[in-house]
Design brief:
Blueprint lengths: L11 H12 L2 E2 L11 H12 L17 H15 L9 E5 H13 L5 E6 L3 H10 L2 E6 L9 H7 L4 E7 L11 H14 L2 E5 L24 E6 H4 L7 E5 L2 H14 L5 H10 L4 H24 L3 E2 L7 E5 L8 H11 L2 E2 L1 E2 L15 E5 L4 H11 L4
Parallel strand pairs: 1-11, 3-4, 3-5, 5-6, 6-7
Antiparallel strand pairs: 2-8, 7-8, 9-10, 10-13, 12-13
Bound molecules: 4'-deoxy-4'-aminopyridoxal-5'-phosphate and glutamine (GLN).
């Protein structure tokens, strides 16, 4: 995790955000919205801070499992959207963002030498945490342009002795919502070899055409699957760092045994607000997906009219563009020049894969569309200057 000179190596997101700031570029690199989530939720958090202990104030340690009100709300939300039947006392753990849920789950379930399979490209923290746990990281490739994992690759990667399979749907960075067929293949293979599943579903409410399919809803998955959610994505409050893990009681206990020594408990005032947010009506959640779909349409059209070949993201914050259509070979080198030369930041997809896979992704850039429409329109203007 350190650079060659012993200094801390910033994540690719931090690195390109810093470059964007330095050059006043539009930051379509790091995925965060430029509009905050609901005012009402901010007021609830504020009230929980302003009030005194014993009088609605939540400034002292929250319970280690999470505020009961939030755990109840997570259970109701999972029942309402996915028909899952969870117990707030046994099947739910609140974490400091999904990031802590990923860390605590991997540290709880993976021992040195254990095989862990992820899709590739993969969210950067999976590889870091598998490394910290001493696991052996194998991948199932998702290849441009449709990014659908091949059944034979799933079967070949999830071998006997695999301890954990990390699924991510909707997927960062590709914007893919994995098909039922792919999820069934992964689950049946995991069941065959006795592997557990960690399913990162932080973009669950940002599926553009139709309902999100949770891994835990696939036959045979529930008893072996931990599922991750995040208020950051669902409520456009990425700085609040409220996430949750749901799943079988014995797995949640294992994850909690690690979480208690990572953070012990997570911020109470933010949890109180998110508890209210999860109870919003269906129209609120549909509105989030509609807003993101509009952003996708603006950005994808702009990238295409600039001459780039672009995938069709079905969900989430991101679109992938192939810069080889403009004659560029090395998207990574381009990503470091774009903030200064074009006034736009984007992330090279090669940052989300293992070094030996990088050649399959070397001409791809990830652009975020979780931005205001006027910002995306300005980005569209700047993209016209691409040679
Ligand atoms: N998983 C994925 C796939 C993500 O994209 C992100 C955030 N970008 C996270 C986890 C982390 O979520 P949080 O901010 O809640 O820690
Ligand atoms: N999840 C965000 C992304 O993929 C970034 C979060 C981070 O900076 N760690 O861009």
């Amino acid at each position: 995790l350190l650079g060659a000179d012993g200094s801390i190596k910033p994540t690719i997101f931090e690195e390109l955000t810093a470059l964007a700031l330095e050059h006043g570029a539009i930051n379509l690199g790091q995925g965060f919205p430029d509009t905050d989530g609901p005012e009402e939720l901010k007021r609830i958090a504020e009230r929980s801070i302003r009030s005194a202990f014993g009088d609605g104030g939540l400034n002292q340690y929250a319970p280690g499992l999470g505020l009961p009100a939030l755990r109840d709300s997570i259970v109701d939300h999972q029942r309402r959207f996915y028909g899952r039947d969870l117990d707030a006392g046994r099947n739910v753990l609140v974490t400091t963002g999904a990031t802590e849920g990923i860390a605590a789950s991997i540290l709880a379930l993976v021992s040195p030498g254990d095989r862990v399979v992820t899709l590739s490209p993969f969210y950067d923290s999976y590889a870091a945490m598998i490394g910290l746990a001493g696991g052996e990281h194998a991948t199932v490739g998702m290849r441009w342009p449709d990014f659908a994992p091949a059944d034979e690759e799933i079967d070949a990667a999830i071998t006997a002795g695999t301890r954990l399979v990390i699924v991510n749907t909707p997927h960062n960075p590709t914007g893919t919502a994995l098909s039922r067929g792919t999820l069934e293949r992964i689950v049946s293979r995991a069941a065959e070899v006795g592997a557990l599943i960690l399913s990162d579903e932080v973009y669950e409410h940002l599926v553009f055409d139709g309902p999100h399919l949770p891994v835990a809803a696939i036959e045979g998955a529930a008893e072996r699957t931990l599922t991750l959610g995040s208020a950051g994505k669902t409520f456009s409050l990425t700085g609040w760092k409220v996430g949750w893990v749901t799943g079988p009681a014995e797995l949640i206990t294992a994850v909690r045994s690690v979480k208690q020594f990572l953070s012990y408990s997570s911020g109470g005032p933010f949890q109180a607000a998110v508890a209210q947010g999860l109870a919003y009506d269906d129209a609120y959640f549909r509105g989030q997906a509609d807003r993101l779909r509009a952003g996708r349409d603006v950005l994808v059209a702009a990238l295409r009219s600039a001459g780039l070949t672009v995938s069709d993201p079905a969900a989430g914050y991101f679109a992938i563009a192939d810069v080889s259509s403009l004659g560029f070979e090395d998207a990574s080198a381009l990503a470091y020049r774009l903030p200064e030369e074009l006034g736009i930041a984007a992330i090279p997809v090669s940052a989300f894969v293992q070094p030996h896979e990088a050649r399959h992704y070397s001409s791809l850039l990830r652009f975020a569309f979780c931005k205001r429409e006027d910002v995306l329109q300005e980005a569209a203007e700047r993209l016209k200057r691409l040679p």
